[in-house]
Amino acid sequence: MGIVRKRIAVIGGGIAGLAAAVRLREQIPEGADIVVFEQSGALGGKLRTGELGGLTVERGAESFLASGPDGADSAAVTLARRLGLGDALVHPARQPAALAIDGRLTPIPGGTLVGVPGDLSTLNGIADADPAADQDLGRPLLGPDEDVAVGALVRSRYGAEVVDRLVDPMLGGVYAGRADQLSLRVTMPQLARTAETEHTLRAAVRAAQAQSRRVPGRPVFAAVDGGMSRLVSAAATASRARISLGLPVRELIRTATGWRLVLGPAPAPRTEDVDAVVLAVPAKPASRLLAEVAPAVAQAVGTLTYASVALAGLALPPGTVLPELSGFLVPPGEGTLVKAATFFTRKWPHLDRPGGPVVVRASLGRAGEEDRLQLDDAALLEWARRELGELLDRARQELGEPAGAPLPAPAASWIQRWGGALPQYAPGHADRVAAARAALPPGLALAGAAFDGVGIPVCVASGERAADDVSKFLEEA
């Protein structure tokens, strides 16, 4: 017997919440009223498409993994296809990326796992590593379900330079964090699993790489032609949910039959009664909403910290010469505010048009550097342009070209700030989340980057898992 009309609230209109809403609609096509509450004025969370120099340029996440370690389509690709966007998927050009070390752009060594090499001979002088330090001590690197900081494991086996010059910039490009503070199990789950059986880091990396079933030649990343906002809009439409924007959920109350949401300003609150809730918001608002109904869960969830970053978009004049790269990453030890840059129109061929602008997108700031982002937009843009210019000028000199030509002034530019955007998963995060989920009251599910990791595929899968949990609860209620 099908579910008789149920009301489900999805709190949070990012991609995790929208994926949950889509899955709920698929599972309960006519038996549910779904309401998505987003306190900001727009859906999408960190997916936000903008315009720069007449081109579509992302102001948030620019791409997603096209496949998982098992070789199958990632959750993001699968969702895009279900939403009718399969033909709109585009892939980056096959261009190498570089590391900015000592002011020079050096190609990133191949064959690493998020910067951790399985073969130290591939480092090509980028970092010194002592092979003798990675000894077989007669036991696996990690015990069952043990978690450590990425930096602690790699430093103990390969030395500091591999962490500082390779792993830190690779992890920093995704999390804006430092390897010495980030959980191995959350950021590199494949390596964590093989470290439970392998006795050396070299063997663990190679085993993790061998287990990956990605198809050779298949693009690693994908994006949506026309922008990620198309994915957001398509998900909202497919969910057939009622969308509530600009009205924050201030309180969550358990009732005899489900849940009551208290919304809007305190002087004039309104309420909504629902049968189940998917909570797809960052850690701090999730902790606040859980404080009365699940205090222990609220405390565990609330320990997560976040890094703030900013993006600088620059539309340079047509013909501006850039290195033959998709972009570069900068190790924290270089001291720059720019931690990464993407040569956007080179990386994404569908945007590279004859006579069109040369678009560069720079990522600014790392965990613990929030004070460096307290400049106004104009100052941040100028800082980014100066640091980019210095790095590119050095690259031109190495190619035998004249030095001293400044980076041209952009014809158009913007700054996008993402305050408290990127979770910093400390060791033990996965266990804390598992314990929190186990302690949740029935009819309440957690979803999103605060719990399961960053990246669009991870967030989509997280939202879909939450929808599955809610659907199961409603079927059994």
TrEMBL record:
Localization of this protein: Cytoplasm
Cofactor names: FAD
Catalysed reactions, as listed in the record: coproporphyrinogen III + 3 O2 = coproporphyrin III + 3 H2O2
Keywords: Cytoplasm, FAD, Flavoprotein, Heme biosynthesis, Oxidoreductase
A GO cellular component entry from the record: cytoplasm
InterPro entries noted in UniProt: Amino_oxidase, FAD/NAD-bd_sf, Protoporphyrinogen_oxidase, Zeta_carotene_desat/Oxidored
GO MF terms, alphabetically ordered: oxygen-dependent protoporphyrinogen oxidase activity
Class of this enzyme: oxidoreductase
Matches recorded under PANTHER family: PROTOPORPHYRINOGEN OXIDASE
Protein name (record): Coproporphyrinogen III oxidase
Organism, scientific name: Actinoplanes missouriensis (strain ATCC 14538 / DSM 43046 / CBS 188.64 / JCM 3121 / NBRC 102363 / NCIMB 12654 / NRRL B-3342 / UNCC 431)
